[in-house]
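Q: Second attempt. The first request was missing the SMILES, so the protein and zinc ion are both included now.
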Amino acid sequence: MNSNFKVRSSYVHDTANKFLNNIAFTQPPIPVLSLIKQYAKLKWHADACEGFIYYDPFRRKKKYIVSIDKEMIKGRTNWTIAHELGHIILNHFIEFDIDNLNDEEHDILDREAEIFARELLMPREWVKSNCEHPLTISILAKLKNLFDVSWQAITYRLDELNIYSKDYVLSLHEARKIEKET
Ligand SMILES: [Zn+2]
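A: Got both inputs this time. The predicted holo structure:
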């Protein structure tokens, strides 16, 4: 593998933030479905393994075709769409010879798309300004609904932004389970 091939974190952060500034939304949730439709033809499948993106340079208008699993939960669907949008906005299909990359290189581009998805769906400042303290499960649920993401996604984002650690959030879930049982 080309040793220069690695996750370009700051490029991804910058690109996601520029994209956010351009679309100029002022509050969550980010309407990723209508955003991706500007670039891609969308197909809903019963079994698309979450999501799949295909680039066809010969198509006249929208050169991307994105297949989304229609049976996923909503937060997960938004995540998958944001991930595929990441591949588009980060120019992965234009900059790289996708069909000739190895697994490791594909994995790197996927990780970039994940970073993009996080930045897009849960912008740092919005998460910070909407997180009430001290965190409880119902505040977490409010955040999850506000950003239209899964429990896992909001938990990881709080951890990543050093607002609340993953372990702390898990301990809240545990505490509530015990409360319910007793
Ligand atoms: Zn991907």
